[in-house]
TrEMBL record, chain A:
Keywords: ATP-binding, Nucleotide-binding, Translocase, Transport
Molecular-function annotations in GO: ATP binding; ATP hydrolysis activity
Highest taxon in the source lineage: Bacteria
Protein name listed in UniProt: ABC transporter domain-containing protein
TrEMBL record, chain B:
Keywords of the record: Cell membrane, Membrane, Transmembrane, Transmembrane helix, Transport
GO CC annotation terms, alphabetical: plasma membrane
Gene Ontology biological process: siderophore-iron import into cell
Compartments where found: Cell membrane
Family stated for the protein in its record: Belongs to the binding-protein-dependent transport system permease family. FecCD subfamily.
Protein name: ABC transporter permease
InterPro entries hit by this protein: ABC_BtuC-like, ABC_transptr_permease_BtuC
Membrane topology: Multi-pass membrane protein
Length: 490, 375
């Protein structure tokens, strides 16, 4: 559709763009990314014709763009840039009807019936109909940009060129506008070439991206090209982490500010937290957030959190929405649930076991409550899920170390392995199969790491930190299960 | 369907505006013909004008037929001096006033649209001064180019106006990259002041009589011009108006800015040249026949825009009608106010125009203020 061959050009004789090649196929959303001064706008102006090409060729459907007359070109290509200043008090509809300029025929060049139909349609789609007789300068920035989009769509172009069209817009209007464009792209086969500033927005909407660096393309490809962190770091000179969007299979990028790298002083692990214990809950509160991995009812996944709670529930608690219940209780005790991991147990909280261990300079604290009424052998159990007896093992493990996300998962495994060993050594059995149990049916575990000291990638059984985790969890679980047995015997 | 109703009402509104403006032109023209030291009855005025108009184009028998069917009196019954006053003095004067007013208002509307600048008009951007300089030189030195004959004056005025326009734009280009509103006006005023001093120099070099003549001419007037001047301005006016009217869509598109206009298919460079040439043609011709008359080009398009909105499809033709009748009216005031003496018409337009324009500026600011308060 749009083909660019060996494009060279710039404002002066020394070209800013030095030999750029790319091709955009019909119905594709192609986004050009790059920092300020990389030449994005120059490429854009070379394509729109505001700057003359010094070398190379731009063609649409294999026909050179320079061979088009202004009107022919305007029928094929429309341009939407950042908010423009419009002089005089034109109404919204008058602005939109300017989009029909290249299509108007006849001696007097008035708006034909077809022109009017197109204008109605684009006003409908961009939802600006209610402003049609309002003066353009009286509407808000987001609405203005929608009106300009309607004008561009009224042009009925095959190719749409966008120069940071969402620059002044808030999140609502940015997404509204891009959703509209995406829809038009998909339903009408519109080809879109866009400059966008926001990498994450680009990742959500682009079909393909090009990364511009010092006047030439560093990389071109689908949005997963954005997962190449080191490449982005070279271009933008900011530390970048690529993550996945939680619900859409697209990458999202997280930037790390420079100032956060130099932490003023180290946290004293021993005094950096406080524990509240009563019949209702155990609440461990840290001064600053810890990197946390957990399967708690609240605060699941990998996050940065400060509050860690274990709530007592009745033996036959069977809430249909445990998350909501927990939130309610936490509100009551003024624990901010957005910054918390919260678990539930029917075990008596006075039986909690807290074990602290230090080997070399690695310090680990484990806080465990245990009940084994629901003990299950995961390898040998029937598939029924009717477990209503007391008993779950809830473990919180706090570590003074610096883990990568991989090390967090590693540590999670280490803690689980230690728990299984403890159950094994205490001869806990699955009552149904009468074989050795590996867990209870609803165990919860959290690992919270201070992220101080040297970063480590591994926390499995082959590492010191993995062993410390294992030994601490083993000891705590062992004691907690024993306490549970004692209580049963009473 | 309240929407379609509103739309119908709007188109009707525009239609009524044309009818109203047309009526305004006829009324002011009639007043201009009627009011003077010698009162001629209205039917006689009609007889004189229709008969003479038809006479200049058609055969005498057809003429008689028309006057009979319209139940008009015969020209032969009209006293000769009345016919002289109406046909040779008042009618060309009214026509000339209309042409000058229409040309200046249309040129102003075009300059404002092209430069996206509500303060632009032939005066503020210096075209009038340039044209005046050319005209003064022609009048003062009595120059006549053999090929052009009586068209020497307007041709020189138009060319010198156009050259001045380019000097002003050159100055703006050199001082700032964008055609900013303030810069254009500033450059226009600088050039006008410079040209003014050149004119003063020419005046001071001449004798007392030509000095009064030029100064009076500079104030602007449509008095004592006769048919000769009407014939001079009409071809330029028709040509210049056509050049501007066919570019109404481009003028609308240019409101988006030159880049955006280019993106919707406007040949910006070519349109700009045509519009500037058309507007200069109108200004130069108007200045050549009537001297410097200010504020018409500034105020009239503003007033029209308030009523019709900024769409040049209506702003341009309505500016012609309103501008023309405004100048007929101003001329009427100029010769009535201290009758039997006459004031220069430029004084009247400035006396009316300046306060009106000031009021418009204040109104604009209040409008903006309201808008900001809304935000």
């Amino acid at each position: 559709m749009l083909k660019i061959r060996n494009l060279v050009g710039g404002y002066t004789n020394t070209p800013i763009i030095n030999g750029v090649d790319f091709e955009i196929s019909k119905g594709e959303f192609f986004v050009l990314l790059g920092p300020n001064g990389s030449g994005k706008s120059t490429i854009f102006k070379l394509i729109t014709g505001q700057l003359p090409c010094q070398k190379g060729e731009i063609s649409i459907n294999d026909k050179s763009l320079s061979s088009f007359s202004k009107l022919e070109k305007a029928k094929k290509v429309a341009v939407l840039s950042q908010e423009v200043q419009i002089s005089f008090d034109y109404t919204v509809e008058e602005i939109i009807s300017l989009g029909r300029f290249p299509h108007q025929k006849g001696l007097f060049k008035t708006l034909s019936v077809e022109d009017k139909e197109v204008i109605e349609e684009v006003m409908e789609i961009t939802k600006v109909k209610q402003y049609r007789d309002t003066q353009f300068r009286m509407i808000s920035g987001g609405e203005k940009q929608r009106v300009l989009l309607a004008k561009v769509l009224a042009q009925q172009p095959e190719v749409l060129l966008l120069d940071e069209p969402t620059n002044h817009l808030d999140i609502k209007h940015t997404f509204q506008m891009l959703d509209l464009l995406k829809e038009w792209q998909q339903t009408k086969g519109l080809t879109i070439f866009a400059i966008l500033h926001d990498l994450n927005v680009a990742a959500l909407y682009a079909d393909r991206i090009a990364l511009l660096h010092k006047g030439s393309f560093l990389d071109v490809g689908d949005v997963d090209t954005l997962r190449k962190e080191s490449q982005l770091e070279t271009v933008y000179e900011v530390k970048v982490n690529a993550q996945s969007h939680p619900t859409v299979p697209k990458p999202q990028l997280l930037m790390t500010p420079n100032h956060s790298k130099t932490k003023s002083e180290l946290l004293n692990f021993d005094t950096s937290f406080s524990i509240t214990k009563n019949d209702q809950f155990i609440h461990v509160q840290f001064e600053s957030p810890l990197r946390t991995i957990s399967n708690g009812v609240i605060g699941e996944g990998i996050q940065w959190l400060k509050h860690f709670c274990n709530f007592h529930v009745e033996k036959h608690y069977n809430g249909s929405n445990p998350k909501q219940d927990l939130q309610k209780w936490m509100e009551k005790y003024e624990i901010p649930f957005e910054q918390s991991v919260a678990m539930m147990t029917a075990v008596r909280l006075e039986d909690v076991v807290i074990v602290t261990k230090q080997i070399e300079d690695i310090k680990v604290i484990a806080v465990v409550t245990a009940g084994t009424g629901n003990a299950v052998d995961i390898t040998n159990s029937s598939l029924s899920q009717s477990h209503e007896k007391v008993g779950t093992i809830n473990s919180m493990v706090f570590i003074d170390a610096h883990f990568t996300d991989g090390a967090l998962v590693n540590g999670f495994m280490s803690a689980t392995e230690a728990k299984v060993k403890a159950l094994h050594d205490l001869n806990v059995k699955d009552p149904e199969t009468n074989t050795m149990a590996t867990s209870t049916s609803t165990d919860a575990l959290l690992l919270a790491v201070t992220q101080q000291g040297k970063e480590t990638q591994y926390a499995g059984s082959g590492t010191v930190v993995g062993k410390v985790i294992g030994q601490t969890v083993y000891e705590a679980t062992h004691k907690a299960v024993q306490k549970y047995f004692h209580r049963l015997q009473k | 369907m309240p929407n379609t109703f509103i739309r119908k009402f709007l188109t009707n509104k525009v239609l009524w505006l044309y009818v109203l403006s047309g009526g305004f032109v006829l009324c002011t023209a009639l007043l201009g013909l009627l009011i003077s030291s010698v009162t001629v009855p209205i039917p006689t005025i009609f007889t004189i004008i229709i008969t003479n108009t038809v006479n200049s184009f058609l055969d005498h028998t057809v003429n008689l037929f028309i006057t009979n069917t319209l139940h008009l009196g015969l020209l032969e019954d009209v006293p000769r001096n009345e016919e002289m006053i109406i046909w040779n003095i008042r009618f060309p004067r009214v026509l000339l006033a209309f042409c000058v007013g229409a040309s200046l208002a249309l040129a102003g509307a075009a300059f404002q649209g092209l430069l996206r600048n509500p303060l632009a008009d032939p005066y503020t951007i210096g075209v009038s001064s340039g044209a005046a300089l050319g005209a003064v030189i022609v009048i003062f030195f009595g120059i006549t180019f053999p090929v052009l004959g009586s068209f020497t004056l307007p041709t020189v005025a138009i060319i010198s106006g156009f050259v001045t326009l380019f000097i002003v734009f050159g100055l703006v280009r050199l001082s700032s990259r964008s055609l900013a509103i303030e810069t254009i006006i500033l450059a226009g005023i600088i050039i006008s002041a410079f040209i003014g001093s050149i004119i003063s120099l020419i005046i001071s070099l001449g004798d007392r009589e030509s000095m009064t003549q030029i100064i009076y001419w500079l104030y602007g007037s449509v008095a004592m011009r006769g048919w000769g001047h009407v014939q001079i301005i009409i071809p330029f006016m028709v040509f210049g108006s056509l050049m501007l009217l066919v570019h109404y869509r481009e003028l609308n598109a240019l409101a988006l800015g030159e880049e955006a206009a280019d993106h919707i298919g406007v040949n910006v460079k070519r349109s700009k040249i045509y519009i500037l040439m058309g507007a200069s043609l109108l200004t130069g011709a108007a200045v050549a026949v009537s001297g410097s008359i200010g504020f018409v080009g500034l105020v009239i398009p503003h007033l029209v825009r308030i009523v019709t909105g900024p769409n040049h499809r209506h702003v341009l033709p309505l500016s012609i009608l309103v501008g023309g009748s405004f100048l007929i009216l101003a001329d009427l005031v100029a010769r009535m106010i201290i009758a039997p003496k006459e004031l220069p018409i430029g004084i009247i337009t400035a006396l009316i125009g300046a306060p009106v324009f000031a009021a418009l500026l204040i109104r604009e600011r209040i409008g903006r203020g309201k808008k900001n308060a809304k935000d």
